[in-house]
Amino acid sequence: MRRPSSSGTLPGPAKGGDWHTIGRLLPYLWPYKGRVAAALLALIAAKLANVGVPLLLKQIVDSLDARMAMLAVPLALLVAYGLLRLSTTAFTELREFLFAKVLQRAVRTIALEVFGHLHALSLRFHLARQTGGLTRDVERGTRGISTLISFTLFSILPTLVEIGLVMAIMVSRYDWSFVAVTFGALVLYIASTVLITEWRTNFRRQMNELDSKANTRAIDSLLNYETVKYFGNEAFEAGRYDESLQRWERAAVKSQTSLSALNLVQSSIIAVAVTLIMWRATAGVVDATMTIGDLVLVNALMIQVYIPLNFLGVLYREIKQALADMERMFALAAEHAEIADARGAPPVAVGGGEIRFEHVDFGYEPNRQILFDVSFTIPAGRTVAVVGPSGAGKSTLSRLLYRFYDVSGGRIAVNGQDIRAVQQSSLRAAIGIVPQDTVLFNDSIEYNIGYGRPGSTHDEIVEAAKLAQIHDFIASTPEGYQTPVGERGLKLSGGEKQRVAIARAILKGPSILIFDEATSALDSKSEKAIQAELKRIAQNRTTLTIAHRLSTIVDADQILVLERGRIVERGTHDVLLAADGVYARMWRLQQTEAREPRRDEDPAAPEESTLEPLIAGSPTR
Predict the structure, then answer these.
(1) Please, what are the domains in the chain?
(2) Closest C-alpha to 323, from 9, 11, 23
(3) What is the pLDDT of residues 51-109, one digit of tens each?
(4) Which helix (H) or strand (E) holds 513?
(5) Which of 87, 169, 224, 561 has the most CB within a 10 Å radius?
(6) How far is CA 243 from CA 206, 250, 269, in A?
(7) Rounded to whole angstroms, how far apart are CA atoms 103 and 338?
(8) How far, CA to CA in Å, does 394 sit from each of 408, 564, 566?
(9) Pairing of strands 417-418, 431-434
């Protein structure tokens, strides 16, 4: 699998260069080939009308006689002149109208595809990526599509068509010197623009990378606002941010300086070319080989060609930048989805929901194995609890059951079906989870509860909130169910967030439940009230409970004690107590602590683990 870069942003530009990137874009335009063709015809018509304006202007000038009265003004030519001017604008707007849907639909389609692909990528990718840089790259990539199409079809192509028409007029009406000067200036202008812009592109790439890094650091710091405040590290965070900004500033100064050099070179070429053309036309008028109308025509044609050319450097730079931005976005779209459905995979047939872990081995990295030969069964409608120290692999069990990762060895089966052989979406639809660390969307409480089953009615959401013992709290707030929870739910306490997560799982109504220390953030009173409700919810559902407080899992049909990725004990609560092993010692210690004054009543009391010292020192059974 191709891993994300160490910086957490997207991989660098994909191999294949600019033409490869353009090739990636064309399939999104092909469904609208009729509109594209019509827009191109409108473009050509607009340019024909635009080039026709100076031709008519020549006729008007040549037909004027200062000795004749105003009535002798060539009205037909003037009307035609006005109509051509109007036609130029009309055909240009028609082109915009025809192509608007093509452009916006292509941007929408690609953005949606990349967004969907992001959700299809594995948890491993998302744990490594940095949100700030990632979103900036996607944003610039979608904007780059609009820039590329707009500038190419609405600026570069029209300019090339106009140059072709002007050169044709020059060849048909005047001698070779006009064509030589015009063509030579064009070649020199384009060559110098391309060469200097290619050199400048490196500075722009650096600016992009440094901008993404600065944005990543800023967002990371703001998301962890409380941690920054806890340690008084505002100045440290500002220093880190400024370090990125300083490097961006240096790249930006180089980019601007090189832009000034480009503009100077371009202006010099245009100035020399126009001067030579006008000198040659003036000499022609003096020699009587050209009329005043020819002088006006040549001048108008040069202005029409060189004004858009004057922006060629900007256009080329923006197009190159758009291509670079699109490369990064398409590289993300091509990022390998580590976990994918097998070809023709059927939906999972949950049935009763029996779960089997059969000799499961797993490691997040090849040299760091987490689970070793883990085997257990959760019969349909029964509850199995797992206890153990931090890092023992308890939460890894739930991640594997959700198929966020594939096992390294053995298999996991639901109702006899290997979960690698069924559709991921159907598997996850059958599972509900109350995680230990509940992260909420920055929206209302109602939205976050309703997320368990989109489309649920308000009454259904209220009922789930009541079952999760959070309705009274919600009703006591000024905005009720519309109360915003803040970024990642930070406006709610840990217990309130956990109850929202419980309500969300209740609303989903799954066949399989996972409680990952679902009441760890609750006080004893709330825990007892919710624990009874959780038992009711778990009835007739296959349930995996990961617990710290052993009192919450005494009624489990089976309890597993996990140590360093291995099951060291298993059995019911009474059987494990009778065995007088690791679980029994854990139980006695927690019962002793329950009878002592609460630690939070004595702020000076030291924190200590209730599980890890015991399990770490226990023999493997």
Answers:
(1) 17-333 (1.20.1560.10), 345-430+513-526+542-621 (3.40.50.300), 438-509 (3.40.50.300)
(2) 23
(3) 777 777 777 777 765 544 444 556 676 777 778 778 778 877 887 777 777 777 777 77
(4) strand 512-516
(5) 561
(6) 14, 11, 40
(7) 32
(8) 17, 10, 10
(9) unpaired
